[in-house]
Amino acid sequence: MSLHTSDSLPVLAGKHALVTGANRGIGAAIARALSAAGGRVSLLVRDAARGEAVGASLPGPYTVVVADVTDRDALIGACAAAAEALGPIDILVNNAGTAESAPLLKSNTALFERMIAMHLMAPVHASQAVLPSMLERGAGHIVNVASVAGLMGAPYVTAYTSAKHAMIGLTRSLALEVGPRGVSVNAVCPAYTDTDLVTGAVERIVQRTGRSASEALHSILADAGQTRIVTSEEVADAVLALCTAPPGAPVGQAIVIDGRAAEPGA
């Protein structure tokens, strides 16, 4: 990736981006895209060794900070450590996530609490940690990695989809709150993407039905109306575009990334 400004400086030169869940999949791809665009990147991860492995692959400066994003104090402390290492945070990407499936009648309170803690409260606490500095400077970007599940329903993942809907609500409300003060808040909503979450879903179908992995993946995509799986790099490109949007660009957006070409004239 080689986005540059008119004076040949990388488009994110001097910017500090913090990415949660940056040790694999979409988070790692986002970290690489932001680094390639000139950003200084903080990788917020649970596993320091895996974070360092991703960091070593980045072309620009990075630091690794460790926290469980569902632990409010640890998350806020990690954000502070990142700012101390690389300067004030200009970009926050709330990417950390997990998915658990169960029919509603087998979904207990603890399952809902885990999904809400990960997909709603972690972005809330991270945003609260970085917003004071962004608002003081009158500039900043927050991008929440949601899901198409945040815009529609799906069977057997009620807790997950409920939490992702909540993330979209957070995005839209916070955008209206801080957008006039220079901080843009948006979300990206990937469909099924080439991550280990999808790999795990395929493996469960194979074990349960005896289908081949390719048949299982085809059934997942067909049920979602997808013709192909989305790549992590496509999601990262969308995040980068939101992080480089000029002042006055639309905020509170939920950008769907489903691998489909835009309709002619769209």
Describe the structure.
- This protein is of the alpha/beta class.
- The protein is 47% helix and 14% strand.
- A 7-stranded parallel beta sheet has the order 3-2-1-4-5-6-7, sandwiched between helices.
- The protein starts with 15 loop residues before the first strand and ends in a 9-residue tail after the last strand.
Beta-strand segment tally: 7
Mean pLDDT: 90
> What is the CA-atom radius of gyration, in angstroms?
18 Å
> Which CATH-level-2 architecture of the largest domain?
3-Layer(aba) Sandwich
CATH topology of the largest domain: Rossmann fold
Order of H and E elements: EHEHEHEHEHEHHHE
Strand percentage: 5-15%
Q: Segments where pLDDT lies below 50 for 5+ residues?
A: 1-6, 262-266
How many independent structural domains?
2
The CATH class of the largest domain: Alpha Beta
Kindly report how far apart the N and C termini lie: 25 Å
Label the structural class: alpha/beta
State the oligomer.
single chain
Read across the widest sheet, the strand sequence of neighbours is 3-2-1-4-5-6-7
The CATH superfamily label of the largest domain reads NAD(P)-binding Rossmann-like Domain
Helix content: 40-55%
The shape, in one word, is globular
